[in-house]
Amino acid sequence: MVARAGIVVTGTEVLTGRVVDRNGPWLAEELRRLGVDVGQVVVVGDRPDDLRSALVLLLAHHDLVLTTGGLGPTADDLTAEVVADVQGRPSRLDPDLEGEIAAVVERLSAGKGWRRDPEATAAGVRKQAMVPEGAHVLAPTGTAPGLVVPPAEGTSGPPVVVLPGPPPELQGMWGDVLADPFVQRAIAAREELRQSTMRLWGTPESELAATLRRHDAELDGLEITTCLREGELEVVTRYAPAAAPAYAALEAALRGDFADTLFSPTGETVDELVATALLDRGATIATAESCTAGLLAGRIADRPGSSAYLLGGLVTYANEAKRDLLGVPQDLLDTVGAVSPEVARDMADGARRVVGTDVGVGITGVAGPGGGTPDKPVGLVHLCVTSADHVVAREFRLGGDRAGIRQRSVVVALHLVRELLAR
Amino acid sequence: MVARAGIVVTGTEVLTGRVVDRNGPWLAEELRRLGVDVGQVVVVGDRPDDLRSALVLLLAHHDLVLTTGGLGPTADDLTAEVVADVQGRPSRLDPDLEGEIAAVVERLSAGKGWRRDPEATAAGVRKQAMVPEGAHVLAPTGTAPGLVVPPAEGTSGPPVVVLPGPPPELQGMWGDVLADPFVQRAIAAREELRQSTMRLWGTPESELAATLRRHDAELDGLEITTCLREGELEVVTRYAPAAAPAYAALEAALRGDFADTLFSPTGETVDELVATALLDRGATIATAESCTAGLLAGRIADRPGSSAYLLGGLVTYANEAKRDLLGVPQDLLDTVGAVSPEVARDMADGARRVVGTDVGVGITGVAGPGGGTPDKPVGLVHLCVTSADHVVAREFRLGGDRAGIRQRSVVVALHLVRELLAR
């Protein structure tokens, strides 16, 4: 039996979508590595009743429940109190913990020169130092301590791990969570759960589905999810070690049917593959971007160490910039227009020449919502990647809104760089 | 009484964090505009029991429940079936709907030239055409129809609105959802709920908390949430129209205490303010980016119509690029180093000169994780914004990881542009 965990994410800002939750995914991934499956994630605001009913739901269907957020010093930070109540364990002030938190708060505010109301500060510290009877305290990495709260004396049920909201604080506490005996006992039933990913570019989901159906009999014990994003088809499979032969059959089936599009049979992202290929060949790269306006260079630079191959780039949004910075001839811009294969090619070559690199990328397109014409509609993007010896060029008509078209263009560009470097 | 809605988001890829859910936030915002509060959002994978218990939870505490995803043609798409079961309404094949979906599928696959297994396709269509007794069908915008499923005959309870997962499909169906009589009845108790936002830059959360405490007595009826992100402090307040005077008191309090840092009393983002200021002054802008490597230009270009002011930019990751593309003197790079106020200034001026704009931005810093020194640690960023008449320069030591430092640098740069344009 695989142990199961449920997660409560608290925070009105997450509930309303103003902030993207980073803790749920992080915890899910960490738990998966331990062989613990996440069954449900519930997002709640600052209302105690909603938090209470979420806890009751998760406690009924999981071996371990984790909460994130709501541990701050203010009155709307209610998590510890509600968890204590649901687990039937009254809270008491822990004077040692109070002293510890007060010292941290003191140090933090001294460093930043913030004004503080001493009485309110003390009340906040006192609130954060309330510990449910029988709970274990997880030492604060910020100001808020975490808690592991077992069910009430004499009853059985999952423990609740109460974690702070700021991701660095939560992550800093994770080692202590795993070392906690209540937690260890709760997930003792665990069994390794593997997760493997394959990525395809250029295969529609329906073709993959047909292959999966044809091989259905060989794929027992695999939990396969497929997901189309940014034009790539991602196939993520979770399975117990005993199902490894089934996974091998899946991989063989995909390699057989999609030899051309299975660009990552072992899960590397296109970003990783491009970085590795550039490093392996000792090649350098420069970008010339119009509609994406820096997003490609920015994404290449997302990787630590990218300065080994990304020397620079040009954002040439205006036609004059294409002409003056990249040397695209004015008469080319006047005749075929900025969004054309010719200009994409000249941009790629220009980037290579101006920055002095081995590889150049040119992207020019209509991201919309304005600027489309019958000939050159919104979504039309010309891309070109060149080196001294090779040219890879492609025209796309991408769907979606402005952000989607620009994002997809970046992904397409990375794939073209990958193709060029494979030559 | 404000009506409350609960949302179930289905999908293993969302549960494991590989995909960020866009439907929950979109629905929450649409519902908020109608005065409907979202109480809980539950994310579940493809397991029917988890979906069932999530529905039971939400039905118990809300006036309306919405589900997203799990309406596809394959066996792991279970939402309609489970909802029908929970609402106690057996499903029947709707032959008209079956014909309609089959036609759509036919059209879609013809257009893309995909191979298809006719038997599997027919089974998928049949599955998507199963309708719970007494439910309303929402016409498909993709292939999957939506449903509004009332509680079983003779019982009371909230209806469940079953929506497809792809955001454009879901959003395309929203008009029909609002027009549905079951939905209208469920949210009839609604009352307008206003939401107003103020943004501060440079005020710590604790100072704001102190101000809120001091004015506590005047703020009755406001639900205030504060959130620090990317260095900005966002204050979002939800309130019924009757509490408008309390909101005015809040705004006055913030204007009084934080005149210098309250850069957006009416909620505009810094991106909006910069765009408006550039348009108002008819000014153009160019960027020169080292550690951010295009992210600032990319973000300025996020806005439709940005080509009116963003002419271009330079990504000068390597020192040679700073020298050759921007004219930063080699001896300056040799003496004070690339991460210095002098080079940030030269980059800003260089961008302005090379691209030919009114405003130039220079960003140079150590994003890490490598490359830090005792003198110039990871997180040190120098920024400079110049025009013919003004210079705004700032040095920051930003915390966080590589992605965080780069993201924060972009936000800081936007604030400095805002400051320069206000002069």
From TrEMBL, chains A, B:
Highest taxon listed in the record's lineage: Bacteria
Coiled coil: none
Signal peptide per UniProt: none
SMART domains: MoCF_biosynth
Gene3D superfamilies per UniProt: CinA-like, MoaB/Mog-like domain
Segments forming domain MoaB/Mog: 6-185
SUPFAM superfamilies per the UniProt record, alphabetical: CinA-like, Molybdenum cofactor biosynthesis proteins
PANTHER family: NICOTINAMIDE-NUCLEOTIDE AMIDOHYDROLASE PNCC (PTHR13939), NMN AMIDOHYDROLASE-LIKE PROTEIN YFAY (PTHR13939:SF0)
NCBIfam families noted in UniProt: cinA_nterm (TIGR00200), PncC_domain (TIGR00199), PRK00549.1 (NF001813)
Family per record: Belongs to the CinA family.
Name the record gives this protein: CinA-like protein
Species per Swiss-Prot/TrEMBL record: Nocardioides scoriae
